[in-house]
Design goal:
Layout: H1 2-27, H2 32-63, H3 71-99, H4 106-124, H5 137-164, H6 173-190, H7 201-226
Helix pairs in contact: 1-2, 1-7, 2-3, 2-7, 3-4, 3-5, 4-5, 5-6, 6-7
């Protein structure tokens, strides 16, 4: 039953996210806001493609011989996903810049790149033991510290800008990121102790779907204005 539920959920997550991302890329036209939506579409594709490296092997494992037998592909998938999720937030930062036509802010840009670089370097360390069934908790926490700080920075940026600009389309963007981290952090800390906590990845994934839909709905609204 678990295998069926997770597999169906993964399909209903990956296919729509990738489809929406591709539609946003292809549907973007000329103009500042449409360049924003092209970037948003790329962000959605990075999200879906990156997660597929982990979710597809996981679905195969659950439907066949079990997770223990798929340690290497699952670990490799987590490794790739950890990098693509970092790229996702860098792209989201540039979505913020384009949405609100931000100029300058070199210190903020430097912070985004610095946190992203530290995160990726930590993810590349062999001490993570990605290709085993037992990754050290200490390294799981360590590599997620810069990631959480990056997320916090993006939350603050979207919250302030949406409020200052009375941006109804993006007013809940900050909340989707809060929810995604709120569901993700307990998994990092306690999923090995209590596997049921791993189920929090489902609402975390739903929060990311909400993020993508915010961009897609905003693009449809802009397209409607143009027509």
């Amino acid at each position: 039953m678990r295998a069926i539920i997770e597999t169906v959920f993964d399909i209903f997550y990956l296919v729509p996210v990738l489809t929406v991302g591709i539609r946003m890329i292809r549907g973007s036209k000329a103009g500042t806001q449409f360049r924003l939506f092209r970037l948003f579409g790329l962000m959605a594709v990075v999200l879906g493609a990156g997660d597929s490296f982990h979710l597809v092997p996981r679905a195969l494992a659950l439907c066949t011989t079990g997770l223990e037998s798929y340690a290497v592909p699952l670990g490799l998938g987590k490794w790739i996903t950890s990098v693509t999720m970092t790229v996702f937030y860098v792209l989201l930062y540039y979505v913020w810049r384009k949405r609100y036509q931000i100029e300058g802010q070199k210190n903020v840009t430097a912070a985004v790149y610095a946190l992203s670089a530290v995160r990726i370097v930590l993810c590349m360390m062999p001490q993570n033991q990605w290709l085993t069934n037992h990754t050290p908790l200490a390294w799981g926490i360590l590599r997620n510290v810069p990631f959480a700080l990056l997320g916090l920075l993006i939350i603050v940026l979207f919250y302030r800008s949406a409020k200052q600009n009375n941006d109804k389309a993006f007013r809940w963007m900050w909340l989707t990121i809060v929810l995604s981290f709120g569901f993700y952090i307990p998994v990092v800390l306690w999923a090995d102790v209590n596997p049921l906590i791993g189920m929090l990845m489902i609402p975390k994934t739903c929060a990311y779907v909400w993020t993508v839909l915010i961009g897609y709905n905003a693009m449809k609204a802009e397209t409607g204005k143009q027509n």
